[in-house]
Design goal:
- By secondary structure, the chain is an alpha/beta fold.
- The chain is built from 25 helices and 24 strands.
- Helix 11 (about 250-280) runs antiparallel to helix 22 (about 560-570).
- The model is unreliable at about 645-655, about 660-680, about 730-740 and about 740-765 (pLDDT under 50).
Length: about 775
């Protein structure tokens, strides 16, 4: 029951209870006002600081026991700014300007309005009480304009009118005296734990604390004074979070995280893509499925307000639908993605990547015994044996037939969607090495004599490896020069992919129906049971508020808080966040052949390894989420019985190393637990660039290999550094340590791993090198 029998009147706090500001920090109003007064950023910041300090000093004079007025504040501000203010800017006019700015930034807190309506219906009217330096007439005007205050039956009391405040409990007795209702019959609602809860209870009132409007850890500003754009973005995130209408606790957590983290990330990126397209003169942007679905939705929301001459389209593609038709005649060059060593790799999975259903192959193809074990996980030697089988004369015709069919279908689909019109266009994806962009460029080259340049817009880029010189790759957040910032997030790529996950399954091919080429989707998706629709709704709702609040005028200053919040979520999730997002099923294989939860608690069996291993369940495991879900006694025991084993954040690639050519992303470690961290490089050859932040003269590269007796030649700037066999990957095997000199002037060097000399039994074996360690030494 909302009100008990003795309640005769309900009173409500105003700010952050029935109305709130668009900005996250109330002091950002001073920055917004400063921007309307001054052109100089220094003067804007000076004004904002003076305005905040003037209020503080006036309150300090009364030992924070008496309310002050806006007129008193601006008398002090005006005196300090005489040197930069024009004569028509008096203290009175500055007061009026702040009230105008306040009114433009005040909105309803709709979630609490049903309480106000219920109280008014039960008691015939309500009382509004506020601690504020703003005049009562201004507050009355604002509440009336928002249809919250009814002057016929409601009452309004402001501390600026009486000089007394709720914060010390002195205003409540004045209210009771004015309306002739004893305080014991009041039920007060508000957001402040002291002013609106402890003080009313101490006076014998009933009280209910409404804390939803309190900024959470993601909504705090990154600097003081806060920039106006960051304040508007954080305010939009907060308002969107407050007004979410989740059905379950899990949905509420997902909605909150989407509002605070995924929404600003996607909105910033979509806005950046629009501005980048204008800069590049691009008229069409293709958002690649599935990562591009929510990005395109937000892009459409932005363009509805700007009406640019840029068309945003959704392109149904996937690694499965692009890599196969883009495959060349030399299968050896394609083995990197065909045999990409996922945690589980079966015969069925490998053949499905090249468009072959193993059950549909003629029985005459024995597959050297692999058919009978088609769903068994292949180990190292078995994977090597199957690699030879792929290039056999019996299987090759089936692979080429599947490729030709896929190529014909996707070209028809591309033509229908406008990719063959000859106009430059852009594609949008989250990153990281441009594999899909290269595939699209190769496919277009098959159908056009001079295909147009393709501009790739990405959240992040680890390496730029384009197909033709006119193609470009641009990064919004992270590129080769800022990989350290990305790596500090830990292995966060699965989380980024989660934030942009689509509500439909992946694309496996294309078919024509009623004269229209349509994508063929998988029957189901690993993520179909996770509430992606809740995440999408929260992202779009927040994006709409960012747009409505005017936060897209210049979004450049907002990147810092987006990165900060990503780091907080990745490295220090709450238990509720780890539970909600850890239940997301991550698909490592391109065909979603198997899935694992992103995070699950560690048990007693893992206690020895909790702080020693980068992951314990699978490669894409969210370790911080697993730790948040793990019983505290298990974590305590892990620290107590295995001292010195501090948690090591898994870094996908050393910050000074960038993959230049070959297949990636760099990943590891292998399933053999005694081995240290390492990173894969796939071939037939690969290069990586070294760019240390400090001057070093030597790089020690410790190498091993997946295949036995594999010989390697390593060159740097046409100098032979090492040649010979490399020990196979094993916990007992030694490794090759090669010291590579780095010049004091030329810090960027290319180390070309040209695997030109192989085991005689397999002269064309592809590169599968493993970097056990990369150490920079002086």
């Amino acid at each position: 029951m909302l009100f008990n029998k003795k309640t005769k009147l309900a009173s409500f706090d105003i700010f952050d209870t029935v109305i709130t500001r668009k900005v996250a920090d109330p002091k950002a109003i001073f920055t917004l006002l400063g921007e309307s007064l001054f052109q100089s950023e220094d003067l804007v910041q000076r004004f904002a600081s003076l305005r905040a300090d003037a209020e503080f000093q006036l309150r300090k004079k009364s030992n924070f026991q008496k309310e002050i007025t806006l007129e008193e504040i601006y008398s002090a501000v005006h005196a300090e700014l005489r040197d930069v203010l024009t004569p028509n800017w008096t203290a009175e006019s500055l007061c009026a300007l702040e009230m105008t700015e306040e009114k433009e930034n005040l909105i309803l807190l709709e979630k609490n309005l049903p309480l106000v309506h219920a109280a008014r219906e039960k008691f015939g009217g309500v009382v509004f009480i506020s601690d504020t330096y703003l005049p009562r007439t201004f507050i009355c005007d604002v509440l009336s304009s928002l249809n919250v205050f009814d002057p016929k039956c409601d009452a309004l009391f402001c501390s600026s009118e009486f000089g007394l405040m709720k914060s010390n409990g002195q205003l409540f007795p004045i209210v009771a005296e004015k309306i002739s209702v004893p305080l014991k019959y009041f039920h007060h609602f508000g957001d402040n734990p002291v002013s609106d809860y402890q003080n009313p209870l101490a006076l014998g009132m009933q009280a209910t604390l409404l804390r939803e409007s309190e900024p959470n850890r993601y909504e705090k500003p990154t600097s003081s004074p806060i920039s106006s754009m960051e304040a508007l973005w954080l305010g939009a995130c907060r308002v969107s979070r407050i007004h979410s209408d989740a059905a379950t606790a899990q949905h509420q957590t997902i909605s909150d995280v989407a509002s605070n983290i995924a929404a600003p990330l996607v909105t910033y990126f979509a806005d950046w893509c629009l501005r980048k397209a204008k800069q590049d003169g691009v008229k069409k942007i293709f958002f690649l499925s599935r990562d591009g679905q929510i990005i395109r939705d937000v892009f459409d929301l932005i363009t509805q307000t700007q009406s640019p001459a840029i068309l945003g389209k959704y392109l149904y593609v996937s690694r499965q639908s692009l890599l196969l038709p883009a495959m060349g005649e030399d299968l050896e060059k394609e083995l990197g993605w065909i045999l990409a060593p996922t945690h589980i790799l079966t015969t069925r999975m490998i053949l499905s990547r090249v468009g072959i259903d193993i059950d549909a192959l003629p029985p005459t193809l024995t597959l050297d015994g692999f058919r009978s074990q088609k769903d068994a996980n292949l180990r190292g030697p078995e994977r090597e044996q199957f690699r030879h089988l792929l290039t056999s004369s019996d299987l090759m015709p089936h692979i080429l037939s599947a490729r030709n069919k896929a190529r014909k279908n996707i070209l028809n689909y591309f033509k229908q969607e406008g990719l063959l019109d000859g106009d430059p266009f852009a594609i949008v994806d989250i990153g990281w090495n441009g594999t899909l962009q290269r595939s699209i460029s190769r496919i277009l080259e098959l159908a056009m004599p001079s295909p147009p340049p393709i501009h790739g817009y990405y959240m992040g880029i680890r390496s730029r490896n384009i197909h033709k010189p006119s193609d470009t790759m641009s990064a919004c957040f992270w590129d080769e020069n800022s990989l350290q910032e990305l790596d500090e997030l830990g292995y966060f790529i699965p989380m980024l992919e989660l934030f942009v996950s689509a509500t439909h399954p992946g694309v496996v091919g294309y078919e024509q129906s009623c004269g229209v080429w349509k994508p063929l989707l998988r029957n189901s998706s690993c993520q179909s049971f996770w509430p992606l629709d809740v995440q999408h709704q929260a992202i779009k709702a927040t994006a709409q508020k960012i747009i409505k609040f005017g936060g897209l005028l210049d979004s450049a200053p907002n990147k810092s808080f987006i990165i900060r919040n990503l780091k907080i979520f990745a490295s220090d999730p709450t238990r509720n966040e780890a539970s909600a997002y850890g239940s997301f099923l991550d698909a490592e294989d391109q065909n979603e052949s198997y899935c694992y939860p992103l995070a699950q608690p560690y048990g007693l069996k893992q206690i020895r390894k909790i702080y020693r291993k980068p992951f314990l369940y699978h490669h894409n495991e969210w370790k911080a989420g697993c730790l948040a879900l793990t019983n505290s006694l298990i974590l305590k025991a892990a620290k107590q019985f295995f001292p010195g084993k501090s948690q090591q954040r898994y870094v996908a690639c050393p910050p000074h190393v960038t993959l230049v050519s070959g297949y990636g992303p760099l990943e590891g470690p292998y399933e053999n637990p005694p081995l240290p961290h390492f990173h894969w490089l796939y071939g037939p050859s690969a290069s990586f660039k070294i760019k240390p932040k400090k001057k070093h003269n030597k790089l020690v590269v410790k190498l091993t290999t997946l295949f036995p007796n594999q010989a390697v030649t390593i060159r740097q700037d046409d100098r032979l550094l090492f040649t010979g066999p490399i020990p196979v990957l094993s916990k007992d095997a030694p490794h090759a340590a090669i010291a590579i000199l780095i010049g004091q002037i030329h810090l960027q060097k290319c180390i070309n791993m040209d695997f030109t000399s192989w085991d005689q039994s397999s002269p064309s074996r592809p590169l599968a090198a493993i970097l056990l360690q990369l150490t920079l030494e002086k």
